[in-house]
């Protein structure tokens, strides 16, 4: 199958990271893939990694709405490549991607403004909640779909040495230090949990405020700000308990990765974790923006090692069945075959779950990056959020 994936963002957030993983996985599975990406001169950046894996990404400026160079070159390149399906990732790419003799799919990882996708034949989101959002905003249900992300498998990684004193429960949180991630809530919860130590991996605009908050709460000696890290699997292997306190988390790749590593998960009940986690079975949920509730959930899991192990095992089993590379790649294949067979504006099979039968325009929304997602000429597509610039939603 011939597939063009168009990514107009130069950042490295959750959507950008999954774009890269999906391009590489589909190519390895025998699909013919054209990645169309924003220019990136970095010798170790995304575009360089795509080339190193044998792909030939087309680099374009993806500037403001008057960027006629990108529009012209993208149209020409797509006509030369002759894809069956073009997948436009996020607002910027969707605003540039042209109609043509292919099926145009808008791929969303957050509650974005659907006006950017008006040329698309189909929309696909990585949660069921996003599909419901599309339909609620007036998008035809037969052309609204859900296909999840696959997350990296971190089972069996050698553990990193987290800087927790002996005998303390080792908490780990990953993400961009941004208000949407709720790390201030986590620090306030930590102040209620004297036996726990937190390692927080990531960077972002809230670093100074979080450092000051930890000091004011008297927990600075039980918090380690690890900065930007690439060794996510090792960090997960080194912790006792993973926590995702996000105020906004459309998917929660970090939850999937923690499951893959066999770690128990406590999360705030934002959109993605609520959809993913079966409370008491594959993790625990706490009310959003509620330090006391989060502290209670953390204490319950930390205080019952047998239950924590059972939740970790159940989460890992869900990951392997539904969110590992092979099952998700198969769902993407079925989805793309379906919409390609249906053709432009004909709606494919009409089954919203990409052959599995699940059953207007919105304002600016929150995406996988945890930040506002706007189109060209305003703010770049969502900036990266994770310890290694990768986590999503």
TrEMBL record:
Domain Glycosyltransferase subfamily 4-like N-terminal, residue spans: 13-150
Lineage of source species: Bacteria, Pseudomonadati, Pseudomonadota, Alphaproteobacteria, Acetobacterales
GO MF annotation terms: glycosyltransferase activity
Segments of skewed composition (Gly residues): 344-368
Entry-linked SUPFAM superfamilies: UDP-Glycosyltransferase/glycogen phosphorylase
Protein name as it appears in the record: Glycosyltransferase
Matching InterPro entries: Glyco_trans_4-like_N
Organism: Roseomonas acroporae
Origin: domain of life: Bacteria
Region (Disordered) location: 343-393
């Amino acid at each position: 199958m011939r597939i063009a994936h168009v990514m107009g963002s130069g950042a490295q957030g959750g959507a950008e990271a999954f774009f890269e993983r999906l391009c590489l996985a589909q190519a390895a599975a025998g699909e013919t893939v054209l990645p169309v990406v924003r220019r990136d001169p970095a010798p170790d950046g995304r575009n360089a990694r795509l080339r190193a894996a044998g792909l030939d990404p087309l680099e374009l400026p993806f500037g403001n709405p008057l960027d006629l160079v990108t529009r012209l070159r993208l149209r020409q390149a797509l006509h030369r490549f002759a894809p069956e399906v073009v997948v436009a990732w996020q607002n910027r790419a969707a605003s540039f991607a042209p109609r043509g003799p292919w099926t145009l799919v808008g791929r969303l990882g957050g509650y974005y403004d659907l006006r950017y996708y008006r040329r698309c034949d189909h929309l696909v989101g990585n949660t069921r909640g996003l599909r419901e959002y599309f339909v609620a905003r007036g998008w035809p249900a037969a052309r609204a779909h859900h296909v999840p992300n696959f997350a990296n498998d971190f089972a069996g990684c050698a553990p990193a040495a987290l800087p927790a004193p002996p005998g303390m429960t080792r908490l780990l949180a990953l993400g961009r230090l941004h208000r949407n991630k709720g790390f201030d809530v986590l620090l306030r919860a930590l102040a209620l949990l004297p036996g726990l130590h937190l390692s927080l991996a990531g960077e972002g605009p809230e670093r100074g405020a979080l450092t000051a908050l930890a000091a004011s709460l008297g927990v600075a000696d039980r918090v380690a700000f690890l900065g930007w890290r690439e060794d996510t699997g090792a960090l997960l292997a080194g912790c006792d308990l993973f926590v995702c306190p996000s105020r906004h988390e459309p998917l929660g790749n970090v939850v999937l990765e923690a499951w893959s590593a066999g770690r128990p998960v406590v999360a705030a009940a934002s959109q993605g974790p609520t959809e993913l986690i079966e409370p008491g079975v594959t993790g625990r949920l706490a009310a959003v923006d509620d330090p006391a509730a989060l502290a209670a959930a953390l204490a319950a899991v930390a205080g019952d090692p047998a239950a924590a192990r059972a939740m970790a095992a159940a989460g890992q089993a869900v990951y392997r069945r539904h969110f590992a590379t092979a099952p998700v790649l198969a769902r993407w294949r079925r989805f793309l075959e379906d919409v390609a067979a249906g053709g432009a504006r004909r709606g494919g099979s009409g089954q919203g779950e990409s052959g599995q039968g699940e059953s207007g325009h919105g304002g600016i929304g929150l995406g996988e990056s945890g930040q506002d997602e706007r189109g060209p000429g305003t703010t770049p597509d969502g900036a990266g959020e994770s310890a290694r610039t990768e986590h999503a939603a």
